[in-house]
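2.7 Reproducibility. Because tokenized structures are sensitive to small changes in the input, we list the exact sequence used for NADP-dependent oxidoreductase domain-containing protein, including any N-terminal residues retained from the expression construct. No trimming or masking was applied before prediction.
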Amino acid sequence: MQEIVRAMNYVIEQGWAFYWGTSEWTGAEIIEACEVADRLGLIRPICDQTRYNILDRSRVDYDFVNLYKKYKYGITAFSALSSGVLTGKYNDGIPDGSRMSIPWFKSILSNGLEEKSAKAIQLAEIAKEIGCTLPQLAIAWIEQLDENLRALEFEDKITPEIRAKIDTIADVKPELTKVQDNVHQMRGKWQ
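Resulting structure tokens (single pass, no recycling of outputs):
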């Protein structure tokens, strides 16, 4: 970790960047990086690029909770549609030409696909109930409304009752995902 922190600070010292952040790191890894930076008097990472959506939110809602206050850590969320699962396109399997039809993507993204697709079907019913599409519901849920302005029409329809239904279907529990495990394996090859 010290090597990573020093390398990122070198990039900043050279004027190639003003700050540095992480992508898909665990809370423990980020804390370690911040502690190393503090110990060495270097610049800490300031944010993590992490997936955040109805089905994938353990990191943001649970793992990072202490980071926000203690380190003033930020996030840059991505994968609002859970790699396409929340569009419904994987409800009947993996279509040819889709991202998950590519072996490399399939190996890291398809873990739990059937379960997530089953949840997407249930979430589509809630979307229908409030008069929008599943992708619009997914975007409105995370309040990333500039991504899809039409979602503004449905934001107020996501009442506490609708949110409770969504949470029941999503059944989110803090856990490492297969993607995180694969990222850790890839990092191990580079270190």
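Residues 139 and 147 are 7 Å apart (CA to CA).
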